[in-house]
Every structure is written in structure tokens, then in C-alpha cells.
């Protein structure tokens, strides 16, 4: 790879690892809340169906949660290996925020996860439900702190710069935590996680409905997922619009790249639906446009002027092509989710929610759409921030460790092999669990275990007890 320097390789490595990682939290955040709802419905109604679904999705949650934790640990090390300069300069601000995530969210999840997974037959129903709620709360708190860190890098606030160039916290940590883009990014991202989970659950329900339309568990899954799509998808579109207006205020160059506006438009900017951005020529070739629609969306006035990338120095412009298309993928999937929600509402009103194979096939096709959307949204956010690590203050080229390209390339190659092997196997196992379906009266992870699990197997004392008579020392001696 003669044309790839250490900086580009380090960026590719972080993008690769964080893309893999992002898949699992975007699923487990929503799935933890779904498990909380299922257990709450079981406690309220006493219906075995909800308990069966809870135990079915609990096994899937356990695998996804573990893979999310493992894949996230790697990125912490990358800050020290590939981005040591950034860690040194920004560490006094982002270090405590990431520590808060461990001290609050991770400890909360770790403390109650064991009760949630293995305590159904060992603690009271109320305590077990409380543990499930705490795990769901922990996933949200984890997202809270991580998104606060990322948002501070996008819209830095509440900092001071020391003589040695380090970013130091100012008099109020609240200004750092609740920086200008954080509330909007938090709502938009968490809602995306809920939608991602809803479409996975809907896809699994649709798969089993296509095999057996009378499957009660599949009907419940599909109905709940489609209610979520119908209600949350339009909310997500509104939140995305509000988040976009906030981005226009604080990161206008990112919005210019998203919209493909190379030139300023003093009398109203068009909305470019599709085209091929050409950064060298400063234009979008073969553009399909709606006149003045971009000004209407961003300024709520079709004649409002909008600045273009011609007002931004060349060295401060983000890569337009990547941001332009990732944004359209995200928006397109969001509109498709809205369409699925409306379609399911129509089918529900006609009494054909469980008897429409075409709807079920569409839901099955859409089941991975949430993952694609969140990755596309992350690419839009992070690539659109370039060439800055801390927006407007610290460039990405200034943030990397002084490493040679072969060192980064070798670790990148190792990550690619290990990630596809380990996490590919994990995803395959999750898909096998999903395809197996829900069994009525399905046992939980701890069912049938009378006492603590011993890694040594059956102990001599247990053998003596089970035989009904004590055994001599010679009989039990190894």
C-alpha cells in the first residue's frame, strides 16, 4: 500500500473498529428496553407469551451485549496507540467523561446483568424486573456519556487552552457535558437505536409469520415492532431535522457537504436529490434538484440565502462525496422506515397485519436497515467533521501518533481477520437463535440448575448424596 500513510491507515483502522462496535450497542440499547417492556407486560398480565418472548430475546441480548463490550475495549487502546497526541491534548476533558461512563453505566450494567440473565428462579419477580430496568438504564447512561464526548469534539464548549496546548475543563463541567450539539445528537442516536431494534424484532416476527401465520409469538413480535415503527419513525424524522438545523448553526461546512452546495445561493438553494459530487470542479454532476427546497427545509423560507463551500477555505472542507452519499442513504432508509410504519397501520386497520405475505417479506428485507442507517449516520457525522478532530481547534493530522505506516497496516490487517472471524461467528450464532423461533414455556438460562454451577462437574460429595448412602474414602478418592 505505497500511497497510504500512517495517518490514513489510522483513520481507516478506527473507522473499521468503531463501525463493527456501533452495530452492537445500537441493537442492545433498544433490545434492553424491549426486554424491560416484555417483562413488565408479563408481570402485569400474567401471560406466558410475554415471558416466552422475554427469555427468547434475553439469550440474543446476552450475546450482542458481550460482543459490544469486547469490540468497544479495542477503541480505548487505539486512543493511546494511534491517537496519542489527541489523547494528550484533549485527555483532561474527554478522559473524565469516559471514566464517568465506566463508573456509572458499565458498573450498573455489570452489577445487574447477572441477576437479569440467571436470577429469574433465584430472586423475586420484583427484584428481577428491577434488575432488567437497571440494565436498560445502564445502556442509556452509557450512550449518554459516549455521545457527550463525541458531541464535545463536534461542538467544543466549556474548555480553556493551557500554555502547552492542552484542553482543560473550565469552571463548569455542565458546559462541557451539555455542549451545543449534545442534546440533539443524544435524542437522534438513541431513537435510531430503538428503531434499529424494532425492525430486527419485526423482521424475526415476519420470518416466522411467513412460515406459520398462526404463530402467536411471531404475531406479538410483529405487532409490537410495527407499532414502534409507525410511532417512532416520524418522530425520528422530526428529530433529524432539528439536529440538522443545529448542525447548520455550529458546523455549516458539514451541512454544505451533505447538501452538495459547492456554490452559495443568495436567492434560495435547491435541494439536490441525487448527483455525482465533483470536488475538483466544484459542482454536482447530473444533479436532480428541487428548486429552493433546501432553503425551505433549512431556513423555512424558500428565498433564504444559503452559503456554499466557496466560502470555506479549501483546506477546511470535508470530503463531499462520502458525506453527500452517506447522508442520502441515512435519509432514504428513514423514509423507508416511515413507509413501513404507515403500511403496517393500513394493514392493521384492514385486519390483515398477520395475513399479508408481501408486508412480511418487506419487513424481512428491512430488518437490517437500521444498522445500515446508523452506520451511514455515523459516517456523515464523523467524515463531515473533517479535517478536524476537535472542530475548529485541532486538526486530525495533528492528532495522530508518530507511527510508521507498516506498524499501523499490520495491526489493521490483524483487526480485519480477527473481527470478521470472531464477530462473524457471533452474528451467525445470533441468526441461528432468531431462526429457531420461540418455544412455549421455554426455559431460561438458569432453568434446571439446582445450585451453583461447578466447573469441575459433579463433585464426589454430590455423587455420594445422589446415591442415597455415604461413600467410603476409598470410593471417592481420585
TrEMBL record:
Gene Ontology BP, a term: aerobic electron transport chain
Coiled coil (residue ranges): none
GO cellular component, one term: cytochrome complex
Record InterPro entries: Cyt-d_ubiquinol_oxidase_su_1
Membrane topology of this protein: Multi-pass membrane protein
Single GO molecular function: oxidoreductase activity, acting on diphenols and related substances as donors, oxygen as acceptor
Signal peptide: none
Transmembrane segments: 12-35, 56-77, 97-119, 126-147, 191-210, 222-239, 322-346, 358-379, 403-431
Keywords carried by this UniProt record: Cell membrane, Electron transport, Heme, Iron, Membrane, Metal-binding, Transmembrane, Transmembrane helix, Transport
Cellular compartments annotated: Cell inner membrane; Cell membrane
Pfam families: Cyt_bd_oxida_I
UniProt family annotation: Belongs to the cytochrome ubiquinol oxidase subunit 1 family.
Protein name per its UniProtKB record: Cytochrome ubiquinol oxidase subunit I
Lineage, broadest ranks: Bacteria, Pseudomonadati, Pseudomonadota, Alphaproteobacteria, Sphingomonadales
Amino acid at each position: 500500500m505505497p500511497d497510504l500513510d500512517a495517518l490514513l491507515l489510522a483513520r481507516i483502522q478506527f473507522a473499521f473498529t468503531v463501525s463493527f462496535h456501533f452495530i452492537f450497542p445500537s441493537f442492545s440499547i433498544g433490545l434492553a428496553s424491549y426486554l424491560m417492556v416484555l417483562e413488565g407486560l408479563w408481570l402485569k398480565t400474567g401471560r406466558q407469551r410475554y415471558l416466552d418472548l422475554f427469555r427468547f430475546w434475553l439469550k440474543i441480548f446476552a450475546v450482542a451485549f458481550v460482543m459490544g463490550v469486547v469490540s468497544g475495549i479495542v477503541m480505548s487502546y487505539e486512543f493511546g496507540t494511534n491517537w496519542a497526541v489527541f489523547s494528550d491534548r484533549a485527555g483532561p476533558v474527554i478522559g473524565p467523561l469516559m471514566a464517568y461512563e465506566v463508573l456509572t453505566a458499565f458498573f450498573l450494567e455489570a452489577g445487574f446483568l447477572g441477576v437479569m440473565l440467571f436470577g429469574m428462579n433465584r430472586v423475586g419477580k420484583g427484584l428481577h424486573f428491577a434488575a432488567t430496568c437497571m440494565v436498560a438504564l445502564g445502556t442509556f447512561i452509557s450512550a449518554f456519556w459516549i455521545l457527550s464526548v463525541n458531541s464535545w469534539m463536534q461542538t467544543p464548549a466549556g474548555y480553556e487552552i493551557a500554555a502547552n496546548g492542552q484542553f482543560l475543563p473550565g469552571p463548569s463541567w455542565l458546559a462541557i457535558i451539555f455542549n451545543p450539539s449534545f442534546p440533539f445528537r443524544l435524542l437522534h442516536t438513541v431513537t435510531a437505536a430503538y428503531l434499529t431494534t424494532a425492525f430486527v424484532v419485526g423482521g424475526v416476527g415476519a420470518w416466522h409469520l411467513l412460515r406459520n401465520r398462526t404463530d402467536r409469538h411471531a404475531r406479538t413480535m410483529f405487532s409490537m415492532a410495527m407499532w414502534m415503527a409507525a410511532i417512532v419513525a416520524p418522530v425520528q424524522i422530526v428529530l433529524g431535522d432539528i439536529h440538522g438545523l443545529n448542525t447548520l448553526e455550529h458546523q455549516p461546512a458539514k451541512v454544505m457537504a451533505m447538501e452538495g452546495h459547492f456554490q452559495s445561493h443568495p436567492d434560495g438553494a435547491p435541494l439536490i436529490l441525487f448527483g455525482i459530487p465533483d470536488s475538483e470542479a466544484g459542482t454536482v454532476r447530473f444533479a436532480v434538484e428541487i428548486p429552493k427546497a433546501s432553503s425551505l427545509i433549512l431556513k423555512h423560507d424558500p428565498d433564504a440565502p444559503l452559503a456554499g463551500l466557496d466560502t470555506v477555505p479549501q483546506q477546511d472542507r470535508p470530503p463531499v462525496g462520502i458525506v453527500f452519499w452517506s447522508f442520502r442513504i441515512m435519509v432514504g432508509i428513514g423514509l423507508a422506515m416511515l413507509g413501513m410504519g404507515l403500511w403496517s397501520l393500513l394493514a392493521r386497520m384492514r385486519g390483515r397485519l398477520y395475513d399479508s405475505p408481501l408486508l412480511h417479506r418487506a419487513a424481512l428485507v428491512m430488518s437490517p436497515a437500521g444498522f445500515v442507517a446508523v452506520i451511514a449516520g455515523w459516517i456523515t457525522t464523523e467524515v463531515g467533521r473533517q479535517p478536524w478532530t476537535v472542530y475548529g481547534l485541532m486538526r486530525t493530522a495533528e492528532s495522530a501518533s508518530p507511527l510508521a505506516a507498516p506498524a499501523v497496516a499490520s495491526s489493521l490487517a490483524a483487526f480485519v481477520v480477527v473481527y470478521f472471524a470472531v464477530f462473524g461467528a457471533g452474528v451467525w450464532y445470533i441468526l441461528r437463535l432468531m431462526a429457531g423461533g420461540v418455544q412455549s414455556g421455554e426455559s431460561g438460562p438458569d432453568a434446571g440448575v439446582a445450585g451453583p454451577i461447578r466447573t469441575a462437574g459433579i463433585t464426589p460429595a454430590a455423587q455420594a448424596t445422589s446415591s442415597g448412602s455415604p461413600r467410603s474414602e476409598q470410593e471417592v478418592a481420585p
